[in-house]
Write a structure and sequence with these properties.
By secondary structure, the protein is mainly β. 8% of the residues lie in helices and 43% in strands. The protein has two helices and 15 strands. A five-stranded mixed sheet has the order 10-9-1-5-15, covered by helices on one side. Strands 6, 7, 8, 11 and 12 form a five-stranded antiparallel sheet that branches. Strands 2-4-14 form a three-stranded mixed sheet, with no helix packed on it. The longest helix has 10 residues, at 90-99. It is globular, with a radius of gyration of 18 Å. It starts with 6 loop residues before the first helix and ends with a strand.
Length: 183
């Protein structure tokens, strides 16, 4: 049995929320190593020329939920990562347009500095964007970005790296880094 009564003394303050996200089209992933004790320490292999997005966003605007559910066939996990992006603007609309219909794998970094890998080529996440302009005055204007899917196991922690499938060929590039922070 694990005693978590003094976790703050051992690990420092426990902070909620997310602060960075990597969005990788599932079609760009060649392989993901199996986790050991829910941690991936080896390289995720991407196709040569793979590109993906790095998303930064405001503090307290990103969250991840992973409740366990049951069916007659056993347990699974309902993964849902959500980011609230204030102030609708062209950069946000363009980002959303690029992800429509694209099955994704995500890596997020939480406010404690830990990373988790969500999804796989066999269990990708889907993307949805919802715009709410508010009704004026003090109402908020912005988009809710949501990635969701079902996983056979909890998302593992990710301490690994990325490699490309054919290192002799030119390597891939990041598409763009999207900074959705708002001051």
């Amino acid at each position: 049995m694990i005693d978590l009564s003094n976790i703050e003394d051992e690990c420092g303050p426990v902070q909620g929320g997310l602060n960075r996200l990597w969005v990788i089209p599932a079609r760009e992933v060649v392989s993901i190593p199996d986790p050991e004790q829910l941690v991936i320490t080896d390289s995720v292999v991407l196709q040569n020329g793979a590109s993906f997005f790095v998303v930064e966003f405001s503090e307290n605007s990103g969250s991840y939920k992973e409740p366990m559910a049951e069916t007659d066939n056993g347990e699974y996990y309902k993964a849902a990562l959500q980011i609230l992006v204030p102030k609708d603007r062209p950069q946000v609309g363009y980002f959303c347009d690029q992800l429509q219909g694209v099955r994704c794998i995500l890596i997020y970094q939480d406010a404690n500095g830990y990373r988790k890998l969500i999804g796989s080529p066999d269990w990708p996440l889907t993307f949805k964007s919802e715009l709410d302009t508010g009704s004026g005055g003090s109402a908020k204007n912005g988009r809710t970005l949501t990635w969701s899917g079902e996983l056979p196991e909890p998302a593992p922690f990710f301490e690994g790296t990325f490699t490309v499938s054919d290192p002799e060929l030119p390597t891939g590039v990041f598409d763009e880094t999207y900074d959705f922070t708002f001051n």
